[in-house]
Design goal:
The protein has 155 residues and is mostly helical. Helices cover 74% and strands 0% of the residues. Helix 3 runs antiparallel to helix 6. The chain is elongated, with a radius of gyration of 26 Å. The N and C termini lie far apart (99 Å).
Length: 155
Amino acid sequence: PLYQEYMKFREELRIDYADREGRIWQEYLTQNPIRQAKLARNIARFSPAAAYTSATEILAETDLDSHFRFLQQAGEYRNELTQYLRDQNAFGSAAWYDGEAGKKINTAGIPLFSDRPEPLLSSIKRATSDVLTLILLNVAFFLLTYLSFLRYDVR
């Protein structure tokens, strides 16, 4: 009983500190590296290669926003799973730690994680500016090439 109380206290404390650390990291990321990465990405969009890369990342859901959407979903799942374990008194049960002799742990009710991808229409809307940038740059480069050929004297 004393060991079980200790384990329950330890897990609750560990979860509390993990939540605090997560909030600190989220605050740090939104103020510094994420803001810098978005600024660099927006400046680089004037390059055809960067616009193409950005559009394909958005459509493939491998861009920065998709990554953070996934992390948010993982955080929500973590909270859901933690609440489920608290409701099952898992942190106060020795069966969850050392598999008490003869006791089976019922894992049927454990919530499952499911990634909710961004709808395709929403991804297309986000990629539209990059695709338009590619089209405009393509037209501009074609016109510049055409004009340079018109001015070129073959003789």
